[in-house]
Structure formats: C-alpha cells, structure tokens
C-alpha cells in the first residue's frame, strides 16, 4: 500500500491521540524538516521529543534539561520513601532518545525565551534557535506562600514533590524518626501535580510505620474539603492502618498559618500548634519558572493553550505541555503529560508540514499504592467539545471498586504501567 505523506501524518496523528503507539514507522516520511527545541526531559518533554522524531524523522529535535544526568521519576518515589524501592530504580536514562531516536541532548538550564527572534538562551551563555519550541518544565513550588517556609527551609522540612535529593532527605528523616513519633504532611491546595500523590504518600508512610514503628502517627493537614479517590484512601486507612492516619479537613482545622523549622511546629489558622518529628510541606505550586518568566501563564500561574494542539494562547510557535499547562480535566500526571506530548508532537509535525490538525483524544490512569502489595486507580478518557475545550468522555474511566478485592492485582498492573510508560517515554 502506498501511503502519501498527508495520510501518513493523519495516521501518525490519530495513533498519537489514543496515548499509546506501538510499532510506529520511523522512516518513510520525508517532511519539511525544521528544528524543534524541547525544554524539559520529564514525562512531557521526553515523550514529545521522541514522538516528533517518530512522526517525521526529517525534523531535528534538541532536548534541553538542566538535570539530564539526574532525572528521577516522581511516580514510585513514595515507594522509595517507604523503603520498598531504591533511588536507582526510579532513575531515568536518556541514552535511547539520543542513540535510537536521534534526539540531540543538551544538559543546560534555559534562562530565557525570545519568542520574536525564536531563540532560547541557556545558562552556559549559548543560544538555540528554533522553528517550534516545546516547554515542559513541570512545576515551580511557591515556598513563600506558607509563612516560615522557603527553599532553604525545605532542606529541613522537605517537600519531596520533585523526586531526587528531597526524596532521599525525607526517607532519611523517616528512618531516623523514633517509634511513637509524628509524621505531619501539609497537603497542597488545587490545582497541583498528582492529585492522589499526597494520600498515596500517607499510605506508604503508614505502611512503613506499621512494619517498623507501629506506635507512630501520620497527620495530614489539608486546605481541601475533598480529594482524589478519597473513599478508597479512607477505606485503606481504616482497614490497613486503623487509628494511625488522621486526615484533618479545613472544617477540623487543617488550614496552615505558618511553620517553624526551629521548634518543628506548625500553626493552623484555627490557632492550634502541632509539634511533629518529621514535617513534609507540599506548598502551593504553579507552572515551571521558564513558563511564567516568559509571560506564558495566566494570573493563576498556569499556561493557557489551544487544547487541540497545545500551542500557547499567548505566543505563536511555542507549545506548553505537562504539569505547566491548563488541560481542562486531564490531571497533572506523568501519564497526562505523556498523552499531551503525543498530541503536541503530532500538531507540531502537522504545522511544519502545513497539514491539517488531527482531532485528538487523551487517556490517563493514575495508580496509587495503599501498601507495598495493594494499589487503587482512577482512569479517564478525554475529548474536545464543540468549542475546542477538553472534556471527559461520558461513561469513560472511573475508580477501583471498594472492598479491596482487586487491590493486589492493581499493584501488579501499576508496576506494568510504570515499566510501559518509562519505555514509551524514554525507551
Ligand atoms: C509523589 C508523586 C507521585 C506521583 N505519581 C504519579 C503516578 O503514579 N502516575 C503519574 O502519572 N504521575 C505521577 N506523578 C506526577 C508526575 O510526576 C508529573 O505529573 C510529571 O512528572 C509531569 O511531567 P512534566 O514533563 O510536566 O514535568 P517533569 O517530569 O517534572 O519534567 C520537567 C523537567 O524540566 C526540567 N526543567 C525545568 N525548567 C527547566 C529549565 N528552565 N531549563 C532546563 N530544564 C528545565 C526539569 O529539570 C525536569 O527534568 C507523581 C508526582 C509526585 C510528586
């Protein structure tokens, strides 16, 4: 069968839209070429770089990340905290992007974007010019939104919301904590990276305590009235860790006023002072700094985009994906970022080839471990409505059944998901 370039691009695009592409052709398409610079080698950026090369090998792709030799995945980092996995197991290699897919790798920090001149400025003093730019820098943490907290204080009161050194610090603090101590987590307000993440962390810390420090407690101070997979998490706390986990809603005084690293205390807006042995502060967050500094965010700190292509609503030829962008109901997850990356990759190749944009669909599944052997999940499928906004497909997705019957099987699926998405993104 002879496939014209136009139909190849359509085919490639529709495959991308369902979030997982197998056996894509890497040759046969001879497109218009061009240079795409991708900033950020995480779930969004790496997948986008790889899939642009899949869809059109004539396009040169340069991936810039400040942490190319040190990228650790946040997924499964809560298992590292519990001592069930090692840091090495969540570390990612970029070799296949370079050697298998022909992506040019640059380890550097992007300090600025000149959208008119189509140039990115690197910390090393070099510049890179682009035809299309993809920004997938993840999140920046707004430390100063919590009185007493700062980047410096986070060395003592870790957030561990970017996997790496912070994960190691928090793990060491849990190991050093006495039996009978208190682990206190300050959960973030919406929207934030990985909606079920704080509650998975509470489970995994409780699981570690149950095995090693059974008199200890987990307290979650939360500014939100409800959270992702709440019924399932509460069921897990009640059945697996009875009396150990205390989720403090705003109504019960969960809103934090300040933290004090010297006395290891947290003051709530209701006037209570809580002392803890380990304090895990997950502060409010917004789009990665390069996005906000480049004027691509809205007044809430996230990047509005054309939801069919992920091109910025504020600058032409710049695409924002992953945690930084506003993708409607698609959660800020690694799976979501990977799914958005393929849609953006397709849109970029279509635009470089003057071809029509595909009509995408997105998928997301977030697994959360509730113990080392049990997991729960939430899944969704998304499409565009008549106005071009992403909406959840009616009747799609849902959450795991209550009662714990499938939790062991879901823990196995979760491992499979992790291996699969790592391979799809960086392999
Ligand atoms: C505890 C926890 C558990 C999680 N579990 C899951 C899960 O089970 N499933 C799931 O799907 N998601 C999970 N997530 C969410 C997931 O980690 C994020 O949604 C995902 O990493 C977002 O991808 P991204 O590409 O937007 O950003 P990232 O993966 O954070 O990548 C951003 C990259 O950009 C680089 N960068 C930033 N700015 C610059 C710059 N100016 N110059 C150069 N490089 C730059 C950074 O070094 C980084 O490597 C979890 C998150 C947490 C915190």
List the helices and strands and how they pair.
Layout: H1 5-17, E1 35-39, H2 43-55, E2 60-65, H3 77-81, H4 95-99, E3 104-107, E4 110-114, E5 119-122, E6 127-129, E7 132-135, E8 139-141, H5 165-176, E9 182-186, H6 197-212, E10 217-221, H7 230-240, E11 245-248, E12 256-260, E13 265-268, E14 273-275, E15 278-281, E16 285-287, H8 289-293, E17 318-320, H9 334-352, E18 362-371, E19 374-384, E20 390-392, E21 398-399, H10 407-426
Parallel strand pairs: 1-2, 1-7, 2-3, 7-17, 9-10, 9-15, 10-11
Antiparallel strand pairs: 4-5, 5-6, 8-16, 12-13, 13-14, 18-19, 19-20, 19-21
Helix pairs in contact: 1-9, 2-9, 2-10, 6-7
Bound molecules: flavin-adenine dinucleotide.
Describe the 3D structure.
By secondary structure, this protein is an alpha/beta fold. It folds into two domains: 5-140 and 286-358, FAD/NAD(P)-binding domain (3-Layer(bba) Sandwich); 143-283, FAD/NAD(P)-binding domain (3-Layer(bba) Sandwich). Helices cover 28% and strands 22% of the residues. The protein contains ten helices and 21 strands. It has helices at residues 5-17, 43-55, 77-81, 95-99, 165-176, 197-212, 230-240, 289-293, 334-352, 407-426, and strands spanning 35-39, 60-65, 104-107, 110-114, 119-122, 127-129, 132-135, 139-141, 182-186, 217-221, 245-248, 256-260, 265-268, 273-275, 278-281, 285-287, 318-320, 362-371, 374-384, 390-392, 398-399. A five-stranded parallel β-sheet has the order 3-2-1-7-17, covered by helices on one side. Strand 1 (35-39), helix 2 and strand 2 (60-65) form a beta-alpha-beta unit. Helix 2 runs parallel beside helix 9 and helix 6 (197-212) packs parallel to helix 7 (230-240). It starts with a helix and ends with a helix. The model is unreliable at 1-28 (pLDDT under 50). Bound molecules: flavin-adenine dinucleotide (FAD). Flavin-adenine dinucleotide (FAD) is lined by residues 39-45, 64-67, 71, 74-75, 77-78, 109-110, 136-138, 161, 193-194, 197, 288, 290, 322-323, 332-335, 337, 366-367.
């Amino acid at each position: 069968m002879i496939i014209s370039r136009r139909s190849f691009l359509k085919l490639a695009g529709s495959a991308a839209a369902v979030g997982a592409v197998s056996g894509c052709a890497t040759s046969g398409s001879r497109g218009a070429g061009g240079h795409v610079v991708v900033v950020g080698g995480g779930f969004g950026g790496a997948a986008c770089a790889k899939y642009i090369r899949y869809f059109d090998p004539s396009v040169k792709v340069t991936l810039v990340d400040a942490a190319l030799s040190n990228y650790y995945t946040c997924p499964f980092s809560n298992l590292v905290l519990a001592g069930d996995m090692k840091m090495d197991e969540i570390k990612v290699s970029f070799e296949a992007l370079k050697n298998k897919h022909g992506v040019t790798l640059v380890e550097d920090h992007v300090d600025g974007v000149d959208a008119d001149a189509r140039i990115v400025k690197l910390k090393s003093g070099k510049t890179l010019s682009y035809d299309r730019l993809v920004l997938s820098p993840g999140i920046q943490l707004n430390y100063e939104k919590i009185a007493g907290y700062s980047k410096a204080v986070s060395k003592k009161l870790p957030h561990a919301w970017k996997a790496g050194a912070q994960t190691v610090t928090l793990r060491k603090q849990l190991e050093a904590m006495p039996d009978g101590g208190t682990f206190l987590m300050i959960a973030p307000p919406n929207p934030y990276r990985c909606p079920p993440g704080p509650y998975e962390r509470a489970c995994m810390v409780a699981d570690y305590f149950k095995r090693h420090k059974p008199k200890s407690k987990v307290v979650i101070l939360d500014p939100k009235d409800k959270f992702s997979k709440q019924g399932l998490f509460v069921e897990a706390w009640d059945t697996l860790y009875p009396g150990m986990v205390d989720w403090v809603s705003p109504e019960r005084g969960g809103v934090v006023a300040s933290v004090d690293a010297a006395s290891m205390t947290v003051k709530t807006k209701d006037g209570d002072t809580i002392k803890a042995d380990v304090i895990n502060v997950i502060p409010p967050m917004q789009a990665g700094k390069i996005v906000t500094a480049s004027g691509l965010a809205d007044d809430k700190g996230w990047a509005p985009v054309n939801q069919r292509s992920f091109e910025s609503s504020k600058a032409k030829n710049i695409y924002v994906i992953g945690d930084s962008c506003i993708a409607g109901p698609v959660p800020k997850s690694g799976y979501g970022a990977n799914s958005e990356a393929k849609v953006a990759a397709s849109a970029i190749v279509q635009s470089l080839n003057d071809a029509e944009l595909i009509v995408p669909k997105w998928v997301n599944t977030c697994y959360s471990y509730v113990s080392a052997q049990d997991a729960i999940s939430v899944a969704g499928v998304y499409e565009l409505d008549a106005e071009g906004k992403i909406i959840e497909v009616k009747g799609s997705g849902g959450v795991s059944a209550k009662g714990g019957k499938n939790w062991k099987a879901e823990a196995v699926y979760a491992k499979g998901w992790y291996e699969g998405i790592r391979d799809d993104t960086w392999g």
